[in-house]
Amino acid sequence: MTELEQFRHSKDELFATDPNGPLTPEQRASFESLNYFEENPDLRLEIEVQPFEEQKDIQMQTSTGDMQTYKRYGRFKFEVDGEEAELTLYASQHGFFLPYVDSQAGEATYGAGRYLDPTVLPNGKFLIDFNMGYNPYCAYNEMWSCPLPPAENRVKVAIKAGEKNFN
User: Cβ contacts of residue 59 below 8 Å, gap of 6+?
Assistant: First the structure.
């Protein structure tokens, strides 16, 4: 089993059994697995992020109308199927955060976007693995409050990696 397959298996098991997870008891009773894209090695990126000269705090609205504070850390460019795209990376006390919406939102992927938790590599680059992209908990249950990706993190490309829409 690959690292990605193990991650997905563990996540599915957690969703099926954790009473503190995002699924309601009724959803857990019939839950089998989340829906995922096939692994796409081209969307596992070791990339340089260009830090902003001034890393300002911003307020991100959540799905329940609350606000959460994040620091605009930097931007990076990448390519998907020959098309260029650009995203902003945010920081909080919990680490780096990458909320994004791709062109499949509302169809193949969750309409309000998906998340990634990038890691800093020893060489100073970031690991941005879209295969690990996941839906926020509000995709499964509207009682959860989830940050909504800002306009600057809406891309016109289809990121066919990671988690798909929840059925």
Answer: 67, 68, 69
Positive or negative: CA dihedral 18, 19, 23, 26: positive
Instruction: Let me know how long the chain is.
Output: 167
Calculate the alpha carbon distances from 56 to 59, 74, 75, 84, 95 in Å: 10, 10, 13, 25, 16
| Domains of the chain, residue spans | 37-153
What are the structure tokens assigned to 160, written together? 């066919």
| pLDDT tens digit sequence for 7-19 | 999 999 999 999 9
Find where tokens 């879209």 sit: 130
- Tell me how far apart the alpha carbons of residues 150 and 167 are, in angstroms, rounded to a whole number: 25
pLDDT tens track for 56-107: 999 999 999 999 999 999 999 999 999 999 999 999 988 999 999 999 999 9
Q: For 131, list phi and psi in degrees, rounded to 5.
A: -65, -20
